[in-house]
Known about the structure:
By secondary structure, the protein is an all-alpha fold. It has helices at 2-23, 27-34, 65-68, 71-78, 97-108. Heme C is lined by residues 32, 35-37, 39-41, 60, 62, 65, 68, 74, 77-78, 84-85, 87, 89-91, 93, 103, 107.
Amino acid sequence: MKLFFKITLTLLILIVFGAAVALAEHEGLAKYKYFGCASCHSVKSAGIEITDPSAKNDSLDLSTVGKDHNKEWLSNYLKKKEEVNGKTHPKVFMGTKEEREVISDWLSTLK
Ligand code: HEC
């Protein structure tokens, strides 16, 4: 019986912990907002609208960017070490390596 309670308790802890992780905002999403990426890119799939009212169009939506690029590519692109149509990303990334990686990690999940 003791073992039964131990197993039940362990399972309960795992369920509560899992729910907390699932509910918490991905750190990459928080950083995405913090670094103002949304002034040029909406992420409609995550409910993020473009924030710059003067943006003429919304062709840079990143809703499915993870389909085309993996985390490593995204991180390198933000560092201007990869190109799209022969051009590096127009915006210089001002954060740390860790911040760049956490954003890239999140973006790579958008499929
Ligand atoms: C000043 C506007 C601007 C800001 C701010 C900006 N970007 Fe961009 N981004 C662009 C433009 C323009 C392109 C398209 C470049 C091209 O096609 O050559 C682009 C392209 C991209 C792409 C490639 C998309 C694809 O499908 O190839 C990714 C990924 C990206 N940006 C992520 C980010 C992230 C993350 C941030 C915030 C750290 C950010 N951008 C901030 C203007 C911006």
